[in-house]
Amino acid sequence: MGILVAVEGLDGAGKRTIVGRLEAAAIDRGASVRTLAFPRYGESITADLASEALHGRHGDLRDSVYAMALLFALDRAAARRQLHDALAGNDLVICDRYTASNAAYSAARLGAGAASEVVDWVADLEFRRFQLPVPDHQLLLGVPPEVAMGRASGRAETEADRPVDTYERDADLQHAVYRVYGELVQAQWMSTWSWADGDAAVGAVLAQLG
User: Where is the Thymidylate kinase-like domain (predicted)?
Assistant: First the structure.
């Protein structure tokens, strides 16, 4: 089985860029690599429903922390076979967002922390009930909220298919999510973690390959 690495961080933290760098660096080392991105917008109906809710549709759906978390979890659950097949056929599988995103955003929306009931609920739901593979390592990109939000806004101005959603516009929420992410790192939630950016982030993941 290959190594599963989840790249986490705020919207605008540069996850897609780092995933691309990780993939290229691992291939240069002779590793076989597969990448996946969550939520799977445009591929998964539950992901699309969540996105539509975050852009003002489906009534008060987005007001429910647990309902939104369930939609994102169901998106990953539908990709379970894809994840297991990728791990069986590759040395390294990199996910752009994974279960920790659900834990961090859900806890932050409730004003809670990494040791809260909702974080335990997310872990039970995704890893026990949906039987998703547990990451071998998780990387938090160390990009602070002010920088990440600025990048997300700038991206929305140049990429019509990536408008800023309700979560991305909420500065208080973004700061709270970053705090919970930090607590997940300190607790080494579900796996080992690295908290880095740029070259240091790439090096931290490549170290998992031995």
Answer: 7-190
